[in-house]
Amino acid sequence: MRLVRGYLPDHTGAPGPARWAVRDEEGDRLLPEDFSLGEALSSGLGHFRRSLAAAAGEAVTLASLAAPVDRWTEVWAAGVTYRRSREARREESRAPDVYEMVYDAPRPELFFKSLGWRVRGHGQAIAVRPDSSWNVPEPELAVVVCANGEIAGYTICDDVSSRSIEGENPLYLPQAKVYLGGTALGPGIRPAWEVPDPYALGIRLGISRGSREIWAGSASTGLLHRRIDDLVEHLLRADRYPYGVVLATGTCLVPESDFTLTPGDEVRIEIDGLGRLVTPVGTVADVDV
């Protein structure tokens, strides 16, 4: 089962208003029109579970998917949580020692990534910054967190990054990470009670240019250097998220330094049990919000 957000076709077959639904092998069962992710996450896991149980009626088929977030859902991310991420940050940076220190420090690196209205969904275009010469996808397991800190579910995140900007100066991290088309989530949210071990999920990344696959790699969340509950605890330690929050847990797959995304590419990210997030690559001007 997955919690998805997508578009019902109207009488002409074109996508209509976005609706939330619970997707299973029988199709998409719509949730009430006033359903919101924020309200479902506003308490704890029990309330989230009861909110999904409101899906009723005959199964329908959503014409296409959107990102599984509300317009104002906050998306945060953790960095340097895998050895490969640490190596990639050191390769790009003019100040590599800061990343070495963060990798083993008690306090993780946490940074704001996006608001829901900027986030792209399955089939929607991500973007590369026009002022960056080196851009990569970063496939990540993301946790969906209730207001009380309980983990409600998991989804796939592409933490698209402008590595040339990030590497120039660590203080440029927000510009490298936060921009139109710089975040994708989807295809939906798998409830936490259906993911028995989040540390045993295979992750696969494939990038195509035209009809040719130009990069592919695989790894596992078993390589995660930090505990997910510890990342969540640090995020909530001095803050509140009354409508829940999404936290990407870091990447274990980063293309080499001679690779950069270009408009026209296609990025495919798969995580065991969560599905497949496929996004074409465009420019910031291609992002329709």
TrEMBL record:
<keyword id="KW-0479">Metal-binding</keyword>
<dbReference type="Pfam" id="PF01557">
    <property type="entry name" value="FAA_hydrolase"/>
</dbReference>
<dbReference type="InterPro" id="IPR011234">
    <property type="entry name" value="Fumarylacetoacetase-like_C"/>
</dbReference>
<comment type="similarity">
    <text>Belongs to the FAH family.</text>
</comment>
<dbReference type="InterPro" id="IPR036663">
    <property type="entry name" value="Fumarylacetoacetase_C_sf"/>
</dbReference>
<dbReference type="GO" id="GO:0016787">
    <property type="term" value="F:hydrolase activity"/>
</dbReference>
<dbReference type="InterPro" id="IPR051121">
    <property type="entry name" value="FAH"/>
</dbReference>
<protein>
    <submittedName>
        <fullName>Fumarylacetoacetate (FAA) hydrolase</fullName>
    </submittedName>
</protein>
<keyword id="KW-0378">Hydrolase</keyword>
<feature type="domain" description="Fumarylacetoacetase-like C-terminal">
    <location>
        <begin position="103"/>
        <end position="281"/>
    </location>
</feature>
